Automatic annotation (TrEMBL):
Residues 315-341 are annotated as: Disordered. Residues 40-83 form the Zinc finger CHC2-type domain. Residues 319-328 have a biased composition (Polar residues). One of its GO terms (biological process) is DNA replication. InterPro entries: DNA_primase_Znf_CHC2, DUF3991, Znf_CHC2. It comes from Ruminiclostridium cellobioparum subsp. termitidis CT1112. Pfam families: DUF3991, Toprim_2. GO terms for molecular function: DNA binding; DNA-directed RNA polymerase activity; zinc ion binding. This is CHC2 zinc finger protein.
Amino acid sequence: MKRFTDEQILQANRVSLLDLSRKLGYQPVKKYSNYHIPDHGGLYISDERNAFYCGAQESGGGPIQFLMKFENMSWLESMKYLVDDDQVVLHTRKENWDSPKEEKHIEFKLPEKSQTSYKRLFAYLLKARGLDKDIVMDLVNQKKIYESHPHHNVVFVGYDENGVPHQAFQRGTVTGLSFKGEVTGSNKDYCFKMNGNGDSATVYEAAIDAISHASILKHFGMSWKKEHRIALGGLSDRPLNNFLKLHPEIKNITFALDNDYDAKFSNGSPAPNWGQRAAEKFAEKYSKLGYTTSIEKPMAKDWNDELMNIHLSEAEVQKMNSKSQNDPETFGNHDELEDAM
């Protein structure tokens, strides 16, 4: 009996490759009629054909081949990833597509650091994102976070085992503008990490999620320094694979990925809960490799929303307590309440 039916294979090949690439952490940029993914050997996606072409490899294909070539999945793993959910976006394919020319490799270089105080960085991370001040200061001192010049973006840096930066991700700090993106030339085998000293690692999609989760634990007086925290920068486990090779002491892995309960495809149709589907897939995969795995799901969309909800709830309680002290009649006369009981 075949593992997958012909209908399932057709369904997998009709999953939106453009949406899939974005969810995996790639950053396709519109270029004429196609989408270009920088620093991947001339990698282009045609949304009309739902196909990719890579000039460096002189090859292309659909969603299945994309996962096999760029996410190192087997054919069976690719199929399982693509057809686990019934919600897919269908495409009308066009057969004629000129292969773009190969691009040259771009060397990785960190954005220039701001030479002034990190005023915008602290305002964004502490006020807009509600992160713990001590944790943020510690990461700044470790040079894992800094403010760039001249755009004042927050830069999250991924280092190798020798302290050499290989990857970085930027987030804008201007209110009302949602700029974010990986620094050109980044090596996807590396990512932002918060180092621990135990045999456990927790995996997140974004650096802010990792810091938010640590902030929540610290806020409630719980231990947060022992475990390693890894931000994948999407839903590819390449950084995790590399981390585990360098840290053979790790025995326990918790997948704390986003809760995409209201995810939508680019055309507005319902999409799978990408984060939790990936968490389940990774938990199964690494369990088979001998690790003890678990899943921790935020009640909100992600861990920063969870943290902000905690701050909001506590502020509301504080406001109510303050109002009751200043205006006892709001809650009735205490003597009358006692008599009624």
